[in-house]
Amino acid sequence: MTAYKDLTKEELLDLKNGLTKEFEEVKGKGLKLDMSRGKPSKAQLDLSMGMMDVLNSGTPLIGEDGTDCRNYGVLDGIKEAKQLMADMMEVSVDHVIVCGNASLNIMYDAVSRAMTHGILGSTPWAKLDKVKFLCPVPGYDRHFAITEHFGIEMINIPMTPQGPDMDMVEQYVNHDESVKGIWCVPKYSNPQGITYSEETVQRFAGLTPAAGDFRIFWDNAYGIHDLYEEEQDCLLEILAECEKQGHPDMVYKFSSTSKITFAGSGISAIAASEKNLKEIRKSMSIQTIGHDKVNQLRHVRFFKDIDGMKAHMKKHADIMRPKFETVVQVLEEELGGLAIGSWIVPKGGYFISFDALEGCAKAIVAKAKEAGLVMTGAGATFPYGKDPKDSNIRIAPSFPTPEELMTAAKVFVLSVKLVSIDKLLEQAG
Ligand code: PMP
């Protein structure tokens, strides 16, 4: 394989001719493919249909401690659901509150509460001139949307293979009191699939923030979403690490079963220190009388315990693994050695992150769309939707069927090749 940059202008034009014909053929097929969002596929959702059977009209909806799950009450979640989520989040049960159908709104609420009421007696963020959040990039667009919504200034922090650039994180957090938080997806990050190293987690726990109300927003959405049984990334548990280093209140952990059972109809939880939880419960008790305990019961009866949940995740992995491998194989076969893009091969999570030549991402996504393939909007992986290099594209392989995925991956690489050639021709003048 010759790198495209080493081809002459004539060779590039020749290549472009052939690829354009190929592209027009694909376009003529009127494809409708979607690799835009990290949605579980139908086959994955079907895995949890048993959850609809564990509760039927004859089942008493009574929790272990006698709670009638059909009635009001129990703000924290039923005992057995707290245990399940605590085990999933690797914390003790007194550090967990089980919440509603999904985790994003707990994160929104955490930011919203800090804006209006401050944290543990601090000045409400809305009353401050400036509030800033650190945003490891590329990252999750919906995190950035929350902070943007509240007018919080977002600062890009580059990701490394070990997690966010911790020198930069320490510099900001320890010296700038307007820095109030950081968004983290610590295991199989969205979109790169990077797991923070032990040293990174220890450095997080060792931060000495200039702002007393600085919080790490630790969104462990993919904590048990491994693709391989033999090769799993390992993440140090941050709450215990923060306690060990004398900063027990510095982190809020979030998680949900959205990508374990039903997306948007799962159960979610927040884990934090007792002091933080007390404050959260106070405002939560104004917001709601209690979350959906019937759904909590259904989840616990379906999985029984964390071992049941982990066994269930192996079934997800069996569906996801071939999809990831298909995309990676097409990328390697079609783009390997051409030096027009790079990607990370993740061992879990929901995404593959692709970095195109600078200034090409938007055009690639548009090109793919011409042929009927919808990708996540270029720029979405950065705060304000602005990728300074216009290079990162998030690939979400979960939703299409394996056959669709092969076609989608081929349309994608074809689009990458065509746009890269145009870029190189433009540079050649
Ligand atoms: N966090 C991350 C990192 C995600 O990728 C997603 C879903 N794409 C969510 C949170 C959303 O989770 P939930 O459905 O629990 O709101």
Automatic annotation (TrEMBL):
Single GO term (MF): transaminase activity
Entry-linked Pfam families: Asp_aminotransf
Record's keyword annotation contains Transmembrane: no
Keyword Transferase annotated: yes
Keywords carried by this UniProt record: Aminotransferase, Transferase
Family matches, as InterPro entries: AspAT_Ic (IPR024551), PyrdxlP-dep_Trfase (IPR015424), PyrdxlP-dep_Trfase_major (IPR015421), PyrdxlP-dep_Trfase_small (IPR015422)
Superkingdom as given in the UniProt entry: Bacteria
PANTHER family assigned to the protein according to its UniProt record, in alphabetical order: AMINOTRANSFERASE, PUTATIVE-RELATED, ASPARTATE AMINOTRANSFERASE
Protein name as annotated: Aminotransferase
Species for this entry: Bariatricus massiliensis
Lineage: Bacteria, Bacillati, Bacillota, Clostridia, Lachnospirales
